[in-house]
Amino acid sequence: MNKASNVKTPIPGPKSREYIEKWHSFEANKTGFQAPVAIQSGRGAVLKDVDGNTFIDWTSGVLVANVGHCHPKLVQAIQTAANTVLNCYEYPTPQRVSAAEALVRSAPLHLDTCFFLCTGAEATEAAVKIMKKATGCYEIIGFFGGFHGRTHNAASVGGMLKAKKGYGPAVPGVIRLPFPYCYRCPFSASIDSCGMMCIDYYDQVILANSTGSIAGIIVEPYLGTAGFIFPPSGWLKRLEAWAKDRGFLFTLDEVQSSFGRTGTMWAMEWEDSKPDIVAVGKGIGSGITTSAILLTKILLEHIEPGDLGSTNGGTPISTAACSAVLQILMEDRLVENSQSMGEIMKLRLQDVQEKSSILGDVRGKGLVLGLELVKDKISKEPAPEQARELVLRCAEKGLLIGIVGSCGNVIRVAPPLVITEEQVHESLDILEGALLGIT
């Protein structure tokens, strides 16, 4: 078997080291922790650095490159669109009209309209604003560990300290509820017997904190940045029913979880959830910056012309990318590949979990899996230092991984959906060897 990974130099290699040093001399060194490599190019699920080393990619650029790096059909669509017009703001273009139709047709039937924006944070901001204006209420329910972007309103609704620390008061009117983090249950309950007691607790939180002006809820189908934390089966649908019984609008933040990532086109499909609004991004452009909201037309009755807009939302390039991504996902059967490759990865990782003294939890669906590292499996004390060590060890052997989690101790397993079975096993061999060498 021809290996996809091939590391010929120390990490970082001499050229990567040179680029990193020059980069930090001009651009602020305030990005997150990554393996020290400078990327030259990418194809499919493989990245190549400036020293000629090749790596299997388990990050997808933070769950962006769903159709793989530089898919030829996506590249062609972008190039063709770039020869038309680069920006036309609020005028329609053939690319924008086609993409809107394709996006709405790909969504569950009750979501009958969309609006293109630029970033994931812009999409979640728009969703929050629509909920407020449609209801005339101002309180928004978020969740412990939620992450909806780094802009002020999105960070305020989220439930992660790092996104807000040091930036002054958050936007008022946010009520946060505990998300079912079953590996670290805030109620110290057992998933087998708790009966989702967290939902029963929500009414008490509302009674203590609300002023009676709740517009709606925004929630991720799984917590992404907080550590790829998946709720128990049935929780999302039960939450939706809880919200709608109380007259709250229900928004799903599928910026990270959509476009085949969980093994279905939309994560909401796992439980036949029917949100009022869905925010999408990342995989929608698979490398081209774009985002959108999907919603029901009835909500637009409350929105005035000009209320929604984005300088770079819906450009010919970004919408051509969206259409191409939807076509590629269908023609290349990447949603099905996400599910089948994800099943292989999860089974093997669960086997590695039994061998490793520090791999405390393996969780996820499709090609989004979280590996929670702990100092020991009884205390479950987070192991962020070991997570960083694992990132470097894997890079030295030809695998690029990333870290998520509120404590920085969860390994992100999220390769492009084009990853092959051979690449799956090759990358798992690297991960297993590197992990079992860490105590």
Topology:
Elements: H1 14-26, E1 39-43, E2 46-49, E3 54-57, H2 60-63, H3 72-82, H4 94-106, E4 113-117, H5 120-135, E5 139-143, H6 152-157, E6 174-177, H7 197-209, E7 214-219, H8 235-245, E8 249-253, E9 277-280, E10 291-295, H9 316-331, H10 334-355, E11 359-365, E12 368-373, H11 384-397, E13 399-400, E14 402-404, E15 410-413, H12 421-436
Parallel strand pairs: 3-13, 5-6, 5-7, 7-8, 8-9
Antiparallel strand pairs: 1-2, 2-3, 4-10, 9-10, 11-12, 12-15, 14-15
Helix pairs in contact: 3-9, 4-9, 10-12, 11-12
Strands across the major sheet, in which order?
A: 4-10-9-8-7-5-6
Structural class of the secondary elements?
alpha/beta
CATH architecture of the largest domain: 3-Layer(aba) Sandwich
Q: Could you give the distance between the termini?
A: 31 Å
Nearest-integer average pLDDT: 96
User: Which runs of at least 5 residues are low in confidence (pLDDT < 50)?
Assistant: none
Could you name the CATH topology of the largest domain?
Aspartate Aminotransferase, domain 2
| Morphology | globular
Q: Can you identify the CATH class of the largest domain?
A: Alpha Beta
Specify Rg, calculated over alpha carbons: 22 Å
- How much of the polypeptide forms β-strand, as a percent range? 15-25%
